Amino acid sequence: MAAPVEREKEWDTLADLLGSARRGRGRVAVVSGPVAGGKTTLLERFTEHALSEGALVLEAAGSRAERWLPFGILRRILDSAAPLDPVVHAEATALLDAVSTPSLPAPGGPARPAAVHPDLGHPATGYGAGYPAVPYPRGAVAHGDAAAGVEAGMQVLPHVCASLLRLARDRTVVIAVDDVHHGDELSRAFLLCLARRVRQAGVLIVLTEAVRLLPAQLAFHAELQRQPNCTSIRLPLLSADGTGRVLAERLSTAAAQRLAADCQDATGGNPLLVKALLEDGVTALGDSEPFQPLAPAETFERAVLDCLHRGDPETVAVARGIAVLGDAGAPTLLSRVSGTHAKTVELAVQDLNRCGMLRDGAFRHTATRDAILAATPPGELSALHRRAAGLLHQEGAAALHVARHLLAARTPAEDWAIPVLQDAAEYALVDDDPGLALRCGELAVDSCPDGPRRTALKSRLVSIVWRSSPVAAESHLRQLSREFCAGRLTDRDLLHAVTCLAWMGEARQAAEAVRGLQAAAREAREADVPFAYATGTLAAAQSWLSVVSPPVAAVFADPGHPDPLRGGAPHPPAGTSAPGTAPAPYDMPDDAHVPAGQALRTAMCGGQGEAAVVEATRVLQRYHLSDRTLTPLVLAVLALVYAGRIDLALAWTDRLLGECATRSAPTWQAVLGAVRAEAALRQGDLPGAAAQARRAMSLISVPCWGVGIALPLAVLIEAETRMGNLDEAMSLLEQPVPETMLETHIGLHYLQARGRAHLATGRHHAALRDFLTCGELMQAWGMDGVELAPWRLDAAEAWLALGNVPRAREYVEQQRLREAGPAGSRPRGSLLYALARTSGDLAYRLKRLTEAVEILEQGDDRLQLARTLGELGSAYRAAGDFNRARMLVRKAWHVAKSCGAQPLCQEFTPGQGDGESVAVAGREAESPREAEVLSEAEARVALLAARGHTNREIATKLYVTVSTVEQHLTRIYRKLQVKRRRDLPARLWDLSLPGIA
């Protein structure tokens, strides 16, 4: 019989003791070790070994449930002695029966009377010739004297020992008792009595016991250790090497060595836990080879609970307390949470450390803690968490720590806990854990009675939900809208609620509510009674709604009560207060709405770009990104875009995206990403704009976008159209959008993109309708700025496509009369391009296009630059200047290529469009196969020269000297009959040769 893993030394010790007993020298072995440390396994293996050696094995095991049953272990020893002579067995049993009934009383219960023969007044032995009867005092029976019963039992023990020792005359006897510390007092007394008498007998007594003994068990242990024939054996937990050997019993040697360290770390070397973890791993993997650490499952969880229940009952309570608290760092706190005495807690923690479940006061593996929590009754678990939350709060623990227990209790929180939950929600947002913040906010709302405090909590909850999913906040928002209509919101929360309603397409409903509040405020002011909201707050809400959804301005139309921030009085400078009102706090987040709205209104009206930039920059510099300032900051960046400062808009957008890059706020990232895509589109970066818009749309669902879907969808439609992906653009137009989207200024972007897609696909009348609708809305809203949407120039393009040049020229002239921006601006470059296209005067066209190119080359719109260069090349071709036309078309092709505008590239490619009809006349017609008269080396040099490279650049690319390049060019000029580099045929520019990039 092989010894268990890492129990070879202990096995040899027991084998030596067995050999001594076989020689007539009785021995006693006491095996101790932590809970589930392998004591029982070692004892079972050894008894099987003793049986194979011909010994008589008498087995028993202590039980906590039967520790009050007198002679419980002794009776099991006698019952396991199959070879015991029936007469001897009956004799010993009769002796025990005589004194068993007046046993030790159960805890808190009276002693039970003995079964005494009614006539003899002493136990009826029935057998026992040669043994004197053991008198049992009648007084002990009458009065239930337990001490007298124990004394009578002690008098019987020598006789029982003698009965068993007679068995050892013929063969070796091994008495094995597992968990002797759970045995009853009389059985332990028997074992002591027997231990004193086996020194000259062939008897080996093997006992297993716990490391930590109760006070009642210490006397037995001490007396046993005093015996000269007693040997103590201490079992340690498995080492990492031992754990690997256990794993190797079911896994390959390589896999066992690979997993041993992780398994040791998870189990602490506890044999029961190691085997359970191995069993879960084998079950999950089947015949596969494990390469990752074994994952705990059901078997491991059961083993954890077995370890706990094998110990004292207090150990289970303490383990549950540690599982709830997370660690056993503060014994006093753990004692109060678990409801256990501090000294008991200390001893239980020692036991858990010994058995390998704890390390540094915490459970080694999360699966261990999870198993304990899962096995705790729900009611008790909830009570533990509530108790822990209260105690931690009293000790000044962090709000997040307390809140986790409040959440785990799954019951409404007490009043003291609501501020804790509020603080915890804010800290969770700082720690980028919006899920925890949401749960804290919801519990705070659910635990708070109706009133202003609950309304404020609900408002904050909407902000938290909004970060991840605006559509998920809709139900909370409905309740919040009722609250603000009833005047129960704070001034601080009113603008945020209005912003959220406008986002979800309910700007008109919000405006009607604000209008009603304004009327109520006037009545209250006339009656000289206080009102829930300040007049300035309601005016700010009116102004804000009129900016984000211009049609709602009609709701507030009342000649007798003009909007203090629109039409009736000049706007105060951003960041200042209106005369006669108290200045707003500098750090009040809602202050951002008014100046941001003013900056956007200024930018959209046109002609005030510099003022809009100043106002928008002030907003962006003053307010940091938060739940309440997201929309104002986005509109401030859009104001920069509409004011033509794409560079500033990109810088601020990238900065804001950087601030929220590490936060779990997909709504923030999506909205800012959409603005970033719009800026990229206006730069002519079509692939970048499309990618940014797609990413923005993927961060949150389409319903979450509300009316804001107009911006990323418009960017994507236009980018795909410009890149030539017309099928994709048309499929995007089929996506459902909110009806109220066209009541916002970003809805104009969608109309413009849809019109341009229709124009590119030949639906000219549909395109014209979209452009004219866009113009009608802009004029009605009083924001007819060309940077917002150049609808007149787009309509002119549609009329040109329809062949109606006079109508196209009419719309272009209308735009010219509006003076589309100062010299050097992007709108002016587009206007000059349109003026040239609608003019029949070639000289006028050349002049306007040349001016447009000069302006656009200083700006950001590369796509418009490519179109203008191509148009200028066509004009020079018409004027007969083919060389200049060719160079301009080449440049236009390169710019269009860098923009990703495939249709323009095809238009400018030789033989594909107007850009290369230059080749019809001129020198190319005389030499259609120029490259064929050149050598390969000459063709390479000619191609690079035609593309505009200098001699030194050509030499570097071809790994030759500059002198060689000059010699090649001399021969090339002679063969092609040209005098200078710019006269090289355009056909060479399209030549493709190996090694030329």
Model description:
It is a single chain. By secondary structure, this protein is mainly alpha-helical. 61% of the residues lie in helices and 4% in strands. The protein contains 48 helices and seven strands. The strands form two sheets. The chain has a five-stranded parallel beta sheet, with helices on both faces. It has a two-stranded antiparallel sheet with strand order 6-7. Strand 6 and strand 7 form a beta hairpin. 50% of the residues are buried. The C terminus is likely disordered.
List the helices and strands and how they pair.
Elements: H1 8-22, E1 27-33, H2 39-52, E2 56-61, H3 72-80, H4 86-100, H5 138-143, H6 146-165, E3 173-178, H7 185-195, E4 203-210, H8 215-226, E5 230-234, H9 240-248, H10 253-267, H11 271-285, H12 298-310, H13 313-325, H14 331-338, H15 342-354, E6 358-359, E7 362-363, H16 366-375, H17 378-394, H18 399-409, H19 417-430, H20 434-447, H21 452-468, H22 474-485, H23 491-503, H24 507-526, H25 535-548, H26 593-605, H27 609-622, H28 630-642, H29 646-660, H30 666-683, H31 686-699, H32 702-705, H33 710-722, H34 726-733, H35 747-760, H36 764-781, H37 791-801, H38 805-817, H39 826-837, H40 842-857, H41 862-878, H42 882-899, H43 902-908, H44 923-926, H45 936-946, H46 951-958, H47 962-976, H48 986-989
Parallel strand pairs: 1-4, 1-5, 2-3, 3-4
Antiparallel strand pairs: 6-7
